[in-house]
């Protein structure tokens, strides 16, 4: 059985790690380089870095910070925020990223997924899908959760796989930062409809939430931020708990 992955996420604004609820009310959560080093040492399987205001501020990802983090860790490193071209991807990979993640840019120009996969390989392309319930249906939202688009989440997930995405990072907007648990419904649904790995994101508040998402969906990884940043859950202890709960994880 493939081992389930635990992935801390660094949401970056102005060079600092931040975290809010439902993508708003952001507060400082620490130095991203120090947090990255800590998570790697405690057994994180991968690390995600999201420059969360790059797109809405119409600028590129913070390359120098990516370089500093990459120099300190030895686990797979995914970077996103403000990526709009093959040139952007090339700069980030050169800076030390192993994978890149695109969200709003992919919705607005889906062929970007195919272009990146063709140039750098599908394994490099993680498509982030932010989703929310509008009129009783799960739909895609962009611009850091600010703008809903007329695109059903399931339909978009199926399409990004066909376009060449190697992985999906799925975040439930209504669960993000609430610490009430992952959205099992949409995570299970997306995982059922695609053949590429799905990372569950949004809502982790305690160890049991990770067990629940792994038991009740076929997602391959679970991502969290604030519970790691503020020391509420330790990654090593979480993985030991999951192992004892019969979840295949890498200890």
What features would you describe in this structure?
It is a single chain. This protein is an alpha/beta fold. The chain has one domain (5-244): TIM Barrel. It is 35% helix and 28% strand. The protein has 10 helices and 12 strands. The protein has helices at residues 32-41, 63-70, 86-95, 104-108, 111-120, 153-163, 184-193, 207-216, 226-229, 235-244; strands at residues 5-13, 16-21, 24-30, 47-51, 77-80, 99-102, 125-134, 137-142, 147-152, 167-172, 198-201, 221-224. An 8-stranded parallel β-barrel has the order 1-4-5-6-7-10-11-12, surrounded by 6 helices. Helix 8 links the parallel strand 11 and strand 12. The longest helix is centred in the middle third of the chain and has 11 residues, at 153-163. The chain is globular.
Brief sketch in words of this structure:
The protein is 35% helix and 28% strand. Helix 6 runs parallel beside helix 7. It has helices at residues 32-41, 63-70, 86-95, 104-108, 111-120, 153-163, 184-193, 207-216, 226-229, 235-244; strands at residues 5-13, 16-21, 24-30, 47-51, 77-80, 99-102, 125-134, 137-142, 147-152, 167-172, 198-201, 221-224.
Write the layout of secondary structure elements.
Layout: E1 5-13, E2 16-21, E3 24-30, H1 32-41, E4 47-51, H2 63-70, E5 77-80, H3 86-95, E6 99-102, H4 104-108, H5 111-120, E7 125-134, E8 137-142, E9 147-152, H6 153-163, E10 167-172, H7 184-193, E11 198-201, H8 207-216, E12 221-224, H9 226-229, H10 235-244
Parallel strand pairs: 1-4, 1-12, 4-5, 5-6, 6-7, 7-10, 10-11, 11-12
Antiparallel strand pairs: 1-2, 2-3, 7-8, 8-9
Helix pairs in contact: 6-7
């Amino acid at each position: 059985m493939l081992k389930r992955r635990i992935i801390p996420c660094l949401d970056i604004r102005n060079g600092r790690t931040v975290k809010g609820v439902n993508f708003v009310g952001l507060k400082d959560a620490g130095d991203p380089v120090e947090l990255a080093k800590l998570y790697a040492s405690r057994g994180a399987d991968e690390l995600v870095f999201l420059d969360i205001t790059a797109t809405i501020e119409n600028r590129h990802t913070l390359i120098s910070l990516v370089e500093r983090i990459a120099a300190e860790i030895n686990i797979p490193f995914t970077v996103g925020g403000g990526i709009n071209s093959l040139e952007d991807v090339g700069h980030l990979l050169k800076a030390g990223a192993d994978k890149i993640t695109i969200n709003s840019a992919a919705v607005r120009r889906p062929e970007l997924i195919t272009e990146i996969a063709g140039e750098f390989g599908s394994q490099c392309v993680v498509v982030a899908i932010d989703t929310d319930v509008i009129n009783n249906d799960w739909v895609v939202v962009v611009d850091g959760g600010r703008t809903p688009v007329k695109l059903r989440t399931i339909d978009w997930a199926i399409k990004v796989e066909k376009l060449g995405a190697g992985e999906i990072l799925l975040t439930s907007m209504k669960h993000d930062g609430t610490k009430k648990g992952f959205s099992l419904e949409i995570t299970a649904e997306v995982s059922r409809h695609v053949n590429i790995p799905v990372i569950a994101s949004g809502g982790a508040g305690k160890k049991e939430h990770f067990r629940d998402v792994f038991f009740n969906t076929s997602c391959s990884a679970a991502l969290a931020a604030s519970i790691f940043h503020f020391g509420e859950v330790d990654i090593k202890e979480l993985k030991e708990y999951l192992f004892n709960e019969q979840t295949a994880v890498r200890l």
